[in-house]
Amino acid sequence: MAAADQEPHASAVRPRSYQDESYLHGFLGTLGDLQKAGVLQDVVLEVEGRRFPCHRLVLSAASPYFRAMFTSDMAESRQKTVVLQGLDADMFGEILSYIYSGTLHVSLEKVQPLYQAADLLQLDYVRDTSSSYMAMNVDHSTFVDLYKFAGVFSVDIVLRRCVTWIDINFAEFSSGEEFCSLSVNQLTEIISHVELDVKEEKVVCEAVVRWVQHNKEDRLHHLPSILSYIRFNLLTSDDTAAMLEHPLVREDPRSYEVMQNVVQKGNLNLKPRLGMTMEMALVYNAAAGSNELLFMNPQKGKYINCSYKPEERPLSPIMTVTSDNDIYILNTKGS
């Protein structure tokens, strides 16, 4: 047969994979229905006396904690009823709802026990979502509670957010009742921050005095170690003298000795706090005939807009802005 008369080979048919987009939703929905109907449940979890019938397979697929429990030689793998310790019954109900539906309900009232339950049961999504929720809700009313919780459970994202909040709001926060509830370790950690937004080191000194006086009997002996975090080199001579003569310092000989030593050495290596400095960016409008200058503080999101007559427009590169937003320009005109 001539080549032209040969029947062409059929092109090779390649296999394909198809993804059923509705399967996952339908599968979870079916699991939820089975759970609600009490069908095929093969284990009962008991938390604080409450009983939760469940499916071993579903629990094992959702949580490494349950997977280890039900697939190992642990006694729980053979028991019909398993008692779980260290969990809140209401929070475990929320956890089960998430496992069977994929939907997580979080509120400020229950986020902390929810985080603890998720951490124990090794549910990464619930734990991470709870920590993110806490970090997003750090404010004046929640700060102390979240800061203490994050410290105990090492929730880094919440700790970082709390530290940032403290640095920005230290002057206001340190004058409130919540500040006095801090532990000595939390206090020294806070006042060690160079990022504190305070205009004077005196603010930090006064905060320390308030904290000690709140419970002088239990806290006075901590004063010598706390004083080492105060930047005495940034105090005026009058403020330093006032601290040396303060009754709290005079009452504790060790504190007085520490203060004298620190003042004499000068603490020259301690830098000014963030709030004691002002870094501004100067923006010129290069358009013809423009007579405006814009000073911007990137850290605080503040700006100063200045207008000049063309003949008065400052061209000096030597300019500074004070913490009170006063602009000083070195005018070399006529020199």
In a nutshell, what does this entry contain?
With 335 residues, the chain is mainly alpha-helical.
Q: What string, H for helix and E for strand, traces the elements in order?
A: HEEHHEHHHHHHHHHHHHEEEEE
Note the total helix count. Answer: 15
CATH T-level topology of the largest domain: Serine Threonine Protein Phosphatase 5, Tetratricopeptide repeat
The average pLDDT is 82
How would you name the oligomeric state of the polypeptide chains in this document?
single chain
Biggest sheet: strands, sense, closure? 3 strands, mixed
Strand order of the largest sheet: 2-1-3
Shape type: flat
Which ranges are low-confidence, i.e. pLDDT below 50, for 5 or more consecutive residues?
none
CATH architecture of the largest domain: Alpha Horseshoe
Top-tier CATH class of the largest domain? Mainly Alpha
For the CA atoms, what is the radius of gyration?
32 Å
> Structural class of the helix and strand makeup?
mainly alpha
Based on DSSP secondary structure assignment, what is the total number of beta strands?
8
- How many domains? The number is 3
Distance between the termini: 105 Å
Structure description:
By secondary structure, this protein is mainly α. It folds into three domains: 28-137, 2-Layer Sandwich (Potassium Channel Kv1.1, Chain A); 156-274, Serine Threonine Protein Phosphatase 5, Tetratricopeptide repeat; 278-329, no CATH class. The chain has 15 helices and eight strands. The protein has helices at residues 21-37, 56-62, 64-71, 89-101, 111-121, 124-136, 143-153, 156-173, 184-191, 201-214, 216-219, 223-227, 237-244, 247-251, 253-265; strands at 43-47, 50-54, 81-84, 281-284, 292-297, 302-307, 319-321, 327-329. The strands form three sheets. It has a three-stranded mixed β-sheet. Strand 4 (281-284) and strand 5 form a beta hairpin. Helix 4 (89-101) crosses helix 5, helix 5 (111-121) packs antiparallel against helix 6 (124-136) and helix 7 packs antiparallel against helix 8. The radius of gyration is 32 Å and the shape is flat. The mean pLDDT is 82.
